[in-house]
Design a protein that fits this description.
Radius of gyration: 26 Å
Helix content: 55-70%
Strand order of the largest sheet: 1-2
Number of helices: 5
Strand content: 5-15%
Structural class: alpha+beta
Distance between the termini: 70 Å
């Protein structure tokens, strides 16, 4: 067989980096993921409470003043939800104290 054919018949297996730094980094990432899974199981999100929280937040006059943007472009007015509205919607509620 030619050397090219031998390379395809006997592929070199993929090897993970074996350095100490790589192992520590991998362990830290795995621990972080496990922690996130644990917290998600301990405190599952309630969709209905989340929706009510967003609606209550949007009723605040201070947010209402900055929740939309508008600017002129091409003779028309462009409007839409602002980053402040997105931040209010994305905000996670505080975890319950036990």
């Amino acid at each position: 067989m030619s050397s090219l054919a031998e390379q395809f018949n006997n592929p070199i297996p993929f090897q993970q980096p074996q350095g100490v730094l790589a192992q520590v980094s991998s362990s830290c990432e795995m621990a972080e993921v496990k922690g996130q899974i644990f917290m998600a199981k301990q405190f599952p999100e309630n969709v209905f409470q989340g929706e009510q929280r967003v609606l209550d937040t949007c009723k605040r006059p201070a947010l209402a003043q900055v929740a939309m943007y508008q600017y002129p472009r091409g003779g028309q007015r462009v409007t839409g939800p602002s980053i402040r509205l997105a931040e209010a919607i994305a905000q996670k509620p505080e975890l319950p104290l036990e």
